[in-house]
């Protein structure tokens, strides 16, 4: 039994669970919504397994449009959201809340582009850290930030936690190796920060969102 005191679940949200699940199934059909207790057990903690909490429901979207619609629905209906990558964090970063939707990004697992001349890769957030290195090592490249969980941890989680590793002594943390992000705000709006260039004008919003 964990000694961690979790926030008290919102009774109004819990009473609407069935309606919330139904609405989310309309957005992410098929097996993209998991609400059975036994099926949600695998998502009840991150790698810090001393702390466990079943979420309200688990959603596994496959498209940016689905992510946008899920977040917009939750925003408009006052439902909390906790994002999750591979769940390898030791900081509790993906620890669910009883009254929150757990938004799992593991289905976004494609490398979209590799630009060798500019040393840039465009990847989805569910791609594993080591997966990037495996995709480019035949050309003599590798992705520098290398946490101990690199075989399983996702790039989206690395960005959320500003992950590091032994190579970071030379090449910096995740924040020093990310040029741009596409992200979805809680309102459902899709925004882009940075791009295939080293610096942008104005405030460092990219750095703010990394870690």
From TrEMBL:
The cross-references to Pfam families, in alphabetical order and at most eight, read: FAD_binding_4
Which GO terms label this protein's molecular function in UniProt?
Answer: FAD binding
Keyword annotations for this protein, in alphabetical order, are: FAD, Flavoprotein
The source's domain of life comes to: Bacteria
The residues covered by the FAD-binding PCMH-type domain are 51-211
Is this entry keyworded Disulfide bond? Answer: no
For the keyword Nucleotidyltransferase, the answer is no
Q: What name does this protein carry?
A: FAD/FMN-containing dehydrogenase
Lineage of the source organism? Bacteria, Pseudomonadati, Pseudomonadota, Alphaproteobacteria, Hyphomicrobiales
């Amino acid at each position: 039994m964990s000694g961690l005191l979790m926030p008290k679940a919102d009774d109004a949200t819990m009473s609407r669970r069935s309606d919330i699940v139904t609405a989310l199934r309309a957005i992410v059909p098929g097996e993209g919504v998991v609400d059975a207790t036994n099926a949600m057990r695998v998502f009840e903690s991150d790698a810090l397994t001393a702390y466990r909490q079943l979420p309200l429901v688990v959603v596994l979207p496959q498209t940016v449009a689905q992510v946008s619609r899920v977040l917009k629905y939750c925003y408009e209906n006052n439902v909390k959201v906790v994002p999750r990558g591979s769940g390898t964090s030791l900081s509790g970063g993906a620890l669910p809340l009883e009254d929150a939707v757990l938004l799992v990004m593991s289905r976004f697992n494609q490398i979209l582009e590799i630009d060798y001349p500019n040393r840039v890769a465009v990847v989805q957030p569910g791609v594993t850290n080591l997966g990037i290195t495996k995709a480019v090592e035949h050309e003599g490249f590798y992705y520098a930030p290398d946490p101990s969980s690199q075989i399983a941890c996702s790039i989206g989680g690395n960005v959320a936690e500003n992950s590091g590793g032994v190579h970071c002594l030379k090449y910096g943390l995740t924040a020093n190796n990310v040029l741009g992000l596409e992200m979805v705000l809680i309102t459902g709006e899709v925004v882009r920060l940075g791009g295939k260039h080293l610096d942008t004008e104005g405030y460092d919003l990219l750095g703010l969102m990394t870690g």
